[in-house]
Design brief:
Chain B: It comes from Oceanibacterium hippocampi. The complex is a heterodimer of chains A (140) and B (598). Chain A is mainly alpha-helical and 140 residues long. Chain A is built from three helices and no strands. Chain A folds into two domains: 26-58; 60-136, no CATH class. Helices cover 35% and strands 17% of the residues of chain B. In chain B, the strands form six sheets. In chain B, strands 1, 2, 3, 4 and 5 form a five-stranded mixed sheet that branches. A five-stranded antiparallel sheet of chain B has the order 7-6-18-17-16, with helices on both faces. A two-stranded antiparallel sheet of chain B has the order 8-13. The chains are: A mainly alpha (140), B alpha+beta (598).
Chain lengths: 140, 598
């Protein structure tokens, strides 16, 4: 009987202590969860803002302006696109310039060069127009 | 009464004599030698017995309770663990989607509209000690707020006043730095449109409380704002195509000093709209800053007499019904007099014209005669079948119904054959022309991206063979006729010009033209349609002061095609190759049936 009582007492004290620990542990975990969730929400807000900003900075209009201002790239022309099997083997016994005469073979344009940025009413306007005329095949 | 211990009352040894109730012969008491038995007599015994009974009853009761709890515990943890976990998950403070309105994307997932967190600033003037200083500080941070207004507000006796809705993060930071206890922030959400003017008319906009009031925002207001953050919408628009079209239209508007312009790019095989532009446009982030008429979507809400573009429908109808063949023709040497009208040709040839020539030279006389041969009823039925007589279905609130003629007699049949007397929206025209070139199937236009696997709900309006003939005719216009400036070499463009005098207050204004060009490419197997329209273009030196569609609208289409075809993955073809020439060749016959020389 005494053993039982001692055992029960130990169990009660142990359980009480365990419960106490558990309660604080849970509270602590809940705090942590709350702060993590808060962090997630903040991060999501930030991601959303960054996505909007990314989209804003990737406006085609803006990219076009930057590209004409800083890059030598030009819009792709129909003559520059070909299927891979239409490409001939490298002509080993011919002059490089003779390539021009092969019918239906895409030829590279003149080496792209940066057009003077003078003229036009906004920066890059002249370069844009040059790139543009080349691509659209428009002659003025 | 009751005494414990080795008192004279107690007798050592196990109880030999059975007590009256056998169950109770065990010793009952703590700390006693189990071999001792209490033996009580008389009143004391009865009382003790009663006490024991009560304790036993209470014990049993507790035991039952604890058993129930134990069983319940076992049940909950072992048998229904799943439910409990779900319940716990439901109750937890997990991070929920915080946005109350879902985003809108283009077909490639580019962001067109989204909600971001924002803060609104309010004040409690009663807590503010130095309203004048504070007003000056706030005015420095947000110069758009007037100093006098701020001073008056901050020195008032109220408890709550809005200072400004939706501050920028920088403004919020600056206000926080003031450290004024009378100022507070209210967290809110704000709809932003990172693409600005580019997609203004299609996406629309919301009011200050984030309710959609125009465009897709309004149509999908319900589903965008569902309970758990709403369903995002993915449009059929391609931002790159949209930009190319808008860029070209903007350029044409400034070149020809037009008052406005509109354009559409459509996938003729699915009805998806890849681009839709209306100029002037507005910034959906602050729609109230632009003039009211900039909000008007010309592509869907504007109805116009499309002019010669309608000859496409007249000829397709006549060919499909077998009224004429490609080798037949009409005498276009004299203008037609009907009622008080005189129908004459702009590019008059004053001779007999074959069907391809009627289309190529855009002969009103030929088209009118063809419509009369088809008959008024059949013309009306055909126009209805290609959707020109009803309000089209599209996912926008700003969609106008066509303006039909008050009566449809011979005069109207003739004028409608070349695009006068029936006003339709550019979108309707685009859908109808798409059906003419895609093999003859009318598809409903849509602004929402289609799942390529889902079946199309099209309706056949002309035969495959007729559609092939229409392709040849449209190609002929670009190759030899009025649409030469739309040729984007390599992409086999075909199309038709349309110039109409603008009707103002029921009269035609001679000096105000609506010029348009509608094209499809590649014409040997059409995939995309491009439509461009200018409102009141003026001729300039580069057009020799001409302002008709061939000079003003066709170049927009040509340049747009050259820009978008590589984006859309259309392979350039050699336009002189025998396959393409055979697919698109038109044999033009003379009246006597001989091949005409070109």
């Amino acid at each position: 009987m005494r053993g039982l009582v001692v055992f029960a007492t130990v169990v009660v004290v142990g359980a009480a202590y365990g419960l106490y620990e558990l309660k604080y542990e849970v509270e602590h975990l809940e705090d942590r969860l709350r702060s993590l969730n808060g962090g997630i929400a903040d991060s999501r807000d930030a991601i959303e803002v960054l996505r909007v900003e990314w989209s804003y900075l990737n406006r085609p209009e803006y990219l076009q302006e930057l590209a004409t201002q800083y890059l030598d790239y030009q819009p792709i022309a129909a003559t520059q696109v070909a299927e891979i099997d239409r490409l001939p083997f490298r002509p080993f016994d011919r002059d490089e310039n003779e390539l021009d005469s092969i019918d239906g073979v895409p030829v590279p344009r003149d080496k792209p060069s940066r057009a003077p940025l003078i003229g036009g009413d906004q920066p890059g306007a002249a370069a844009r127009m040059v790139a543009y005329h080349l691509a659209t095949g428009e002659r003025r | 009464m009751v005494s414990l211990g080795r008192s004279p009352d107690l007798q050592a040894g196990s109880a030999m004599a059975l007590p009256p109730r056998g169950r109770k012969r065990r010793g009952f008491g703590f700390g006693l030698d189990p071999n001792l038995t209490l033996r009580l007599e008389g009143g004391a015994k009865a009382t003790l017995e009663q006490g024991r009974n009560r304790v036993v009853v209470a014990g049993v009761l507790f035991a039952v309770c604890f058993s129930v709890i134990a069983i319940r515990l076992v049940g909950l943890t072992l048998m229904q663990g799943e439910d409990v976990r779900n319940y716990a998950a439901m109750r937890s403070v997990a991070a929920e989607p915080t946005r109350s309105r879902a985003a809108i994307y283009d077909r490639n997932g580019k962001l067109l509209a989204a909600n971001i967190a924002s803060w609104s600033l309010y004040a409690n003037p009663r807590k503010i000690d130095a309203p004048k200083t504070l007003a000056r500080s706030l005015n420095r941070i947000m110069p758009e707020l007037s100093l006098a207004g701020l001073e008056a507000d901050l020195s008032s006796d109220r408890k709550f006043i809005w200072i400004k809705r939706h501050l920028t993060p920088r403004q919020r930071f600056e206000v926080n730095r003031l450290g004024e206890p009378g100022l507070e922030f209210e967290p809110e959400e704000r709809r932003v449109y990172p693409q600005g003017r580019l997609v203004s008319h299609v996406v629309g906009f919301t009011d200050v409380d984030n309710h959609g009031i125009a465009g897709i925002e309004r149509t999908f207001d319900g589903s965008l704002t569902g309970e758990r953050g709403g369903e995002p919408v993915t449009l059929s628009l391609d931002l790159r195509v949209q930009h190319a079209l808008r860029d070209e239209l903007l350029r044409a508007v400034s070149d020809f000093q037009a008052v406005g312009a509109t354009g559409v790019v459509m996938d003729v095989l699915s009805g998806e709209v890849l681009a839709m532009v209306s100029l002037p446009d507005f910034d959906p982030n602050k729609p109230q800053d632009d003039p009211k008429d900039a909000l008007f979507n010309r592509a869907t809400a504007g109805v116009y007499e499309m002019g010669s573009t309608f000859k496409t429908f007249t000829i397709a109808m006549a060919l499909d019904l077998g009224v004429v063949g490609m080798e037949n023709g009409y005498d276009a040497s004299k203008p037609i007099r009907v009622g008080r009208f005189r129908i004459r040709d702009f590019h008059a040839k004053n001779r007999w014209l074959s069907v391809p020539e009627i289309y190529m030279y855009s002969s009103n006389i030929g088209a009118a005669k063809m419509a009369i041969d088809v008959g008024i009823d059949r013309q009306q039925a055909f126009m209805g079948a290609i959707g020109l007589l009803d309000r089209p279905a599209l996912e926008l609130p700003e969609v106008a119904a066509p303006i039909l003629p008050p009566r449809w007699k011979t005069t109207e049949a003739m004028t409608i054959s070349f695009g006068h007397g029936l006003s339709v929206s550019p979108l309707q025209t685009a859908s109808a022309v798409a059906a003419m070139v895609n093999g003859g199937v009318m598809l409903p236009a849509t602004l929402i991206r289609r799942d390529p696997a889902s079946p199309l709900s099209g309706r056949r309006v002309i035969s495959q063979r007729t559609s092939e003939k229409v392709r040849r005719l449209m190609r002929l216009v670009v190759d030899e006729g009025t649409g030469g400036k739309a040729a984007a070499v390599g992409y086999v463009v075909g199309g038709k010009t349309g110039s109409a005098e603008k009707a103002v207050n029921g009269r035609y204004k001679r000096d105000a033209l609506l010029t348009s060009f509608i094209a499809a490419f590649p014409m040997n197997s059409p995939r995309y349609l491009v439509f461009a329209m200018l409102d009141e273009p003026q001729g300039n030196k580069s057009t020799h002061n001409y302002r008709t569609a061939g000079w003003t609208a066709a170049p927009i289409v040509g340049r747009t095609v050259a820009r978008i075809a590589p984006i859309l993955g259309v392979e350039p073809a050699d336009e002189e190759s025998p396959e393409i020439r055979n697919a698109l060749l038109v044999k033009i016959k003379t009246r006597e049936g001989r091949d005409a020389a070109f």
